[in-house]
């Protein structure tokens, strides 16, 4: 009996001692596993971060050395040339380029920071649409090639030659690589680049304030004619001739507003002779706009034969022969402005929308 009591006491004591030991062992196991997981995760994070570049695509862009921007994509190629005076032109169309659009492009390129290094294997370039541009444009394939942007110096050497591939499938970002390098990076944000020459043109034509305009004369074949003028910007419009009527004031206001913000949608590539031959059967309307400072703008409009019903516009600037101040006729600044304007637009044909054409012609 005494032995049984002793054994039971021993067993109870062992059980009491075993429970704390089991708890301590379990706790140490949890802590050890957590440390192992944390260490493994830290190592994984460091490995991932080691593939991320923080450097800028362009450390410093020397715009003084920049002479040409070349943009290539499937079916199109755009060459933007910097002029001596600081302006730009679209080479294929021989017309002024939009400087603000070019500045935005250069700013976007300068702000790009290279992200994750995706691959250094040239065999994977096709997968990301980052193969080098083919020699022939007909060999361009959108599933193998993306966009190519080159910033060139005057001697043709590259400041930057960037290939822009496809967008990331899941999440933001786009794949890029520089020509001559096998490294493919994932940049954080997609870079959108216009690849049509027409998209880079400076499309502003006229920016006349309503108070600058002294007289208006419209000749639209036999359909419509009016000629109106005013003594100053504060007085009412009145007929310039006996046979002319003053149009509705709202239509005049609409016309003045359109002249204050006139731009074109597309530059027509045809020359004057081709345009005359194609549109010989179409009636032409002429709008003459005279300013108080002796400038005269003549706008010739024809309705396009195309299904969209837009208008083809040509225009030029002159100096009024009836200027009240003869000094205006000899003003070298005025003559220089006329020369520059006509050099840009003379002999050109611009496509404007149907509603803009109707506003200029006071049509319903």
Q: Mind explaining what this structure looks like?
A:
The protein is an alpha+beta fold. It contains seven helices and 19 strands. The strands form three sheets. It has a nine-stranded antiparallel β-sheet, with no helix packed on it. It has an eight-stranded antiparallel β-sheet with strand order 13-12-11-16-17-18-19-15. The chain has a two-stranded antiparallel ribbon with strand order 10-14. The radius of gyration is 36 Å and the shape is elongated. The termini are far apart. The model is unreliable at 1-18 and 35-50 (pLDDT under 50).
The secondary-structure class comes to alpha+beta
Q: DSSP strand (E) fraction?
A: 25-35%
Shape: elongated
Strand order of the biggest β-sheet = 4-3-2-1-6-7-8-9-5
Order of helices and strands: HEEEEHEEEEEEEEEHEEHEEEHHEH
Main sheet properties: 9 strands, antiparallel
Low-pLDDT segments: 1-18, 35-50
Q: What radius of gyration results from the CA coordinates?
A: 36 Å
Average pLDDT, rounded to a whole number, is 82
Tally of extended strands? 19
User: Helix amount, in percent?
Assistant: 25-40%
Distance between the termini: 121 Å
**Annotation field: number of helices:** 7
Oligomeric assembly: single chain
């Amino acid at each position: 009996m005494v032995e049984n009591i002793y054994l039971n006491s021993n067993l109870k004591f062992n059980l009491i001692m075993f429970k704390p030991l089991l708890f301590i062992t379990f706790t140490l196991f949890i802590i050890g596993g957590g440390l192992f997981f944390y260490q493994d995760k830290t190592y994984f994070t460091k490995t991932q971060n080691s593939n991320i570049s923080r450097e800028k695509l362009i450390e410093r862009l020397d715009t003084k050395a920049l002479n040409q921007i070349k943009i290539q994509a499937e079916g199109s190629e755009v060459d933007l040339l910097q002029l001596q005076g600081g302006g730009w032109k679209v080479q294929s169309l021989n017309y002024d380029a939009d400087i603000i659009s070019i500045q935005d492009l250069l700013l976007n390129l300068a702000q790009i920071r290279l992200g994750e290094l995706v691959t250094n294997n040239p065999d994977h370039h096709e997968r990301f649409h980052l193969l080098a541009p083919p020699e022939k444009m007909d060999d361009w394939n959108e599933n193998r090639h993306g966009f190519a942007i080159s910033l060139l110096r005057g001697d043709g050497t590259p400041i930057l030659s960037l290939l822009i591939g496809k967008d990331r499938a899941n999440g933001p970002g786009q794949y890029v690589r520089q020509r001559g390098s096998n490294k493919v990076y994932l940049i954080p944000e997609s870079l959108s680049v216009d690849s049509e020459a027409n998209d880079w043109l400076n499309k502003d034509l006229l920016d006349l304030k309503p108070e600058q305009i002294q007289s208006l004369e419209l000749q639209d074949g036999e359909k419509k004619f009016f000629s109106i003028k005013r003594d100053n910007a504060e007085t009412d419009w009145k007929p310039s001739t006996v046979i002319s009527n003053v149009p509705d004031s709202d239509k005049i206001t609409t016309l003045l507003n359109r002249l204050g913000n006139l731009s074109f949608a597309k530059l027509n590539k045809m020359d004057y002779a081709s345009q005359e031959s194609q549109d010989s059967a179409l009636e032409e309307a002429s709008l003459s706009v005279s300013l108080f400072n002796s400038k005269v703008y003549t706008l010739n409009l024809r309705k396009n034969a195309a299904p969209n019903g837009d208008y083809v516009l040509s225009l030029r600037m002159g100096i009024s022969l009836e200027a009240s101040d003869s000094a205006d006729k000899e003003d070298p600044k005025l003559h220089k402005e006329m020369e520059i304007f006509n050099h840009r637009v003379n002999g050109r044909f611009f496509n404007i929308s149907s509603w803009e054409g109707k506003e200029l012609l006071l049509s319903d």
